[in-house]
Each structure stands twice: as structure tokens, then as C-alpha cells.
């Protein structure tokens, strides 16, 4: 009997894990949008995002049926609350510490690995790599559960910066704010990094959506050479830089082979220019079978937090200073990958490709 009860407990836990992860995938695939311009960190997105289908549908229903008692108070709320994503957000510790997030972490599992101490008297920028198909592990290791992050890095508040498009849609906007995300706009980053007293971390997925089409298991292609806005902001505010690499992120989904020069890649790049977001042909596993589905594979993701790079505050940095710090950051990212790849099953001959 005990054996059967133990088996039942495991099955129930696995089911809850799958449901929680599916809810996160749903946010990305059905609700969410991605901006092909990536996270430049010094400009607002230059393209107009496509509406999230579910949010748009709910909005249309509310307006068509004239549910004024819903949309009038909400529009009033938006008027006064519109700038919140650029001013530190409105996180809810209650939401961020739901036990359901623990199920999501244990599905893979997700693990955060600390290699160096951070000084809470300073502010920091965490550069997250790679983007992956849906950034589930990369973002999840950083943004799930206040208690987990605080155990490794006491005295810090971390903010996950995402494309501003997420905050344009009713309901989705409030949910994204409650789990601790904020806009990736220059205004938003400057607001957090200029806070006195230190102890604040801005986390940015540097490669943005541009990396998506090159996310394949066993491949490590990072789009970073043209991503220099975060370095300039670090200099402007004196925020120390920290590279973070999520080993296993690119293994969560399979993607149909689309090498550069192939007809599929040409179609995908054309769609990127038209739709403003990446269209990867990816697949994972299902609820009850492993061959095909929207769920990611149950593979561990270890986000290794690297060595902090000290940055001297320079209100008006020159291009030479930006270039020098950017090169230092790329060197540290490469070193982080090379030092830890063997621990996570990556062959010694594999190298990080920076584009």
C-alpha cells in the first residue's frame, strides 16, 4: 500500500509540475509577443507590437457588450498607473512565493548557482544568456520565488526587464507586474540603477528574440556584439556588470533545422521583418508522451552567476569606454562558459559563438 501511495504522490506532483509549466508556456505562446528588435536597453521598441490574442479578445467582448462597470474603472486605473512598469513595477511577494512556482522549478529542475559574493552597497546589471526558445529557464531561475534568490543573494531586490509590449494588454499587464517584471526601456533601467543605497539588480536577456532562430540543443550562439546599450547604462550609473549563463536552456525544445541560407530560414527572417517577432518551428513533449507537444523537455537548467565586473560611474561615457567595457564583458562571459561547461555535460571542444 505504501508503495502505491508513494507512486500516486509522485504522479500527482508531476501532473502539478506539468500544469504549472504549461501555464507559463501559455503566457508566451498565446498571450505574449516578442519584439524582433531585441533588448537594446537604450531605445524604446521601434516597431508596433501585434496584440496578444487572448487579451484582445477579452477587451473586445467587454467593449462590445458594453460592460462599462468593468472597462471604465480599469481605464481610470490605467491612466494613473500607466508609468508603473518604468518605475520599478508593482511586485507581489505573495504571488512570487506561491508554492506553485516550486512545482515549476522542480519540473526541469531549475537551479541558480552562485560563484561570487555581491556587495549590496552597489547596484548591478545581470546579463542573462542565452534567450532560448521561450527563455523558461533563463528567466525562471531569476524570477521565480523571492525566497530562493534571497537565500543566495541576501540584501538584493532583482528586477527582470522584459519588452514593453507585455504591459500593453489588459489583465496580462497586471499579472506580469505582480510576478516582478518591469519594462526594458531606458527609463525603467535608469530608475532602478539610480536608486541610492545599492542592493538593486536589473536582469536583462541580452540577446533578445534575435537569438531564437539559432536556439538548438548543443548549439551556443549568442547575439551580443551589437548589444551595447546595457554597457553604456552601466557606465552612466556605475552599475557593476555580471554575466549569467543558463546551461541547459537551449536543450528544453527541439527546433526544425534552419541553417542560414536555407529556404526555411529565409522564410522565417522574412516573417520576422513583417510580423516583428521570431517564428521558430519548435516542439517539446506532451503531457503523456515525449515525442511532440508544447511542454518543454524535463531537462535541468543551471543558471551560473559569474564574476562581477566593477564599473566606475561615468555620466557621459565615450564610445571608446563603452567598447572597452563591452569587450571585457564578452571576455568574462566566454570565461564563465568555458570554466563551467564540463560540469553540465558540454564537451570540452564546444565553444561560445558571439555574434
Describe this structure in words.
The radius of gyration is 20 Å and the shape is globular. The strands form 3 sheets. It has a 7-stranded mixed β-sheet, with helices on both faces. A two-stranded parallel sheet has the order 6-11. A two-stranded antiparallel ribbon has the order 8-9. The chain has helices spanning 2-31, 53-64, 68-81, 93-96, 99-107, 136-143, 146-152, 172-178, 186-193, 229-237, 263-275, 319-340; strands spanning 110-114, 124-129, 157-162, 181-183, 200-205, 221-222, 240-247, 254-255, 282-283, 301-305, 353-354. The model is unreliable at 33-52 (pLDDT under 50). Helix 1 packs across helix 5. With 355 residues, it is of the alpha/beta class.
What does this entry show, briefly?
InterPro entries: DAGAT. With 355 residues, the chain is α/β, with parallel strands linked by helices.
List keywords for this structure.
alpha/beta; two-stranded parallel ribbon; 355 residues; seven-stranded mixed sheet; acyltransferase; globular
Count of alpha and pi helical runs: 12
The number of distinct structural domains comes to 1
> What profile does the largest beta sheet have?
7 strands, mixed
Oligomer category: single chain
Strand order, sheet with most strands: 1-10-7-2-5-3-4
Estimate the mean pLDDT confidence: 85
H-E string? HHHHHEEHHEHEHEEHEEHEEHE
Shape: globular
Low-confidence segments, given as residue ranges, are: 33-52
Tally of DSSP β-strands: 11
Tell me roughly what share of residues is in helical segments.
40-55%
What is the terminal separation in angstroms?
57 Å
Strand content: 5-15%
Q: How big is the Rg?
A: 20 Å
> Helix/strand-derived class?
alpha/beta
Amino acid at each position: 500500500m505504501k508503495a502505491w501511495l508513494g507512486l500516486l504522490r509522485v504522479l500527482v506532483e508531476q501532473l502539478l509540475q506539468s500544469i504549472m509549466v504549461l501555464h507559463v508556456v501559455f503566457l508566451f505562446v498565446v498571450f505574449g509577443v516578442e519584439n524582433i528588435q531585441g533588448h537594446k536597453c537604450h531605445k524604446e521598441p521601434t516597431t508596433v507590437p501585434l496584440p496578444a490574442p487572448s487579451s484582445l479578445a477579452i477587451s473586445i467582448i467587454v467593449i462590445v457588450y458594453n460592460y462599462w462597470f468593468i472597462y471604465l474603472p480599469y481605464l481610470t486605473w490605467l491612466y494613473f498607473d500607466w508609468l508603473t512598469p518604468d518605475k520599478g513595477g508593482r511586485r507581489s511577494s505573495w504571488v512570487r512565493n506561491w508554492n506553485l512556482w516550486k512545482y515549476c522549478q522542480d519540473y526541469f529542475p531549475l537551479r541558480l548557482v552562485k560563484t561570487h559574493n555581491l556587495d549590496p552597497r552597489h547596484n548591478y546589471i545581470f546579463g542573462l544568456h542565452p534567450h532560448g526558445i521561450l527563455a523558461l529557464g533563463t528567466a525562471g531561475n531569476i524570477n521565480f520565488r523571492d525566497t530562493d534568490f534571497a537565500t543566495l543573494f541576501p540584501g538584493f531586490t532583482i528586477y527582470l526587464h522584459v519588452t514593453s509590449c507585455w504591459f500593453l494588454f489588459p489583465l496580462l499587464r497586471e499579472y506580469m507586474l505582480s510576478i516582478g517584471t518591469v519594462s526594458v526601456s531606458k527609463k525603467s533601467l535608469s530608475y532602478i540603477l539610480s536608486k541610492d543605497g545599492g542592493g538593486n539588480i536589473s536582469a536583462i536577456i541580452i540577446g533578445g528574440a534575435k537569438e531564437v532562430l539559432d536556439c538548438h540543443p548543443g548549439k551556443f550562439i549568442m547575439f551580443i556584439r551589437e548589444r551595447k546599450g546595457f554597457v553604456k547604462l552601466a557606465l552612466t550609473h556605475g552599475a557593476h556588470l555580471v554575466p549569467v549563463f543558463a546551461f541547459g536552456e537551449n536543450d528544453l525544445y527541439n527546433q526544425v533545422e534552419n541553417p542560414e541560407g536555407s529556404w526555411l530560414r529565409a522564410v522565417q527572417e522574412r516573417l520576422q521583418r513583417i510580423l516583428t517577432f521570431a517564428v521558430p518551428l519548435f516542439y517539446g513533449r506532451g503531457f503523456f508522451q515525449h515525442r511532440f507537444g508544447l511542454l518543454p523537455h524535463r531537462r535541468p537548467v543551471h543558471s551560473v552567476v559569474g564574476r562581477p565586473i566593477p564599473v566606475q560611474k561615468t555620466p557621459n561615457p565615450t564610445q571608446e569606454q563603452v567598447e572597452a567595457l563591452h569587450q571585457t564583458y564578452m571576455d568574462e562571459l566566454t570565461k564563465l562558459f568555458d570554466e563551467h561547461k564540463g560540469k553540465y555535460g558540454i564537451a570540452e571542444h564546444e565553444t561560445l559563438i558571439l555574434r
